[in-house]
Amino acid sequence: xxxxTDGRAPRKRADARRNQxxxxxxxxxxxxxxxxxxxxxxxxxxxxxxMGTIYRHFPTRxxxxxxxxxxxxxxCAEAGPALLANTATPxxxxxNWMDHFVDFLxxxxxxxxALQSDGLDALHTYFLxxxxxxxxxxxxxxxxxxxxxxxxxxxxxMRGVGNLCVGxxxxxRYDARHLVELLISGLRRQG
Length: 191
Fold this sequence. Notes:
The chain has 191 residues and is an all-alpha fold.
């Protein structure tokens, strides 16, 4: 690590940051396909790094799980404004963001179950603090454009989507993404 001269915590080298991001992305992918108890060697292989690199960044599985959770919250939070800026309509941006949110929720349920600790409340608060304003921004833009109803709050919508995603993985016949699409299309203004 490179030490800062102004007394702040040392910054990681660029290659160390890239390795850490690659690990977080790979871990999230492996967690979705194989669960959070997947072997660390599978995560290392997916990230293209050695086992020592994982343990250098994340000494315990819990450290890795928390880091993946936070990384996914940040990715979802950053996707909202980017979609709003680069999508044809605010409604389309909202619908596309909901796809990101569903992907996050599917992973989140497994991560939360694996943690089972007091830190889970702090992570949930972090999740709400970062994502509710993003969802509100998307809803406000779509409502302001006259594309959706104005009587739904961000927390309420996110809670509904979260409840639809709870059953994912338990029943292969259950398609939460389809139900979320129906929910989002139900927001559209009629006529």
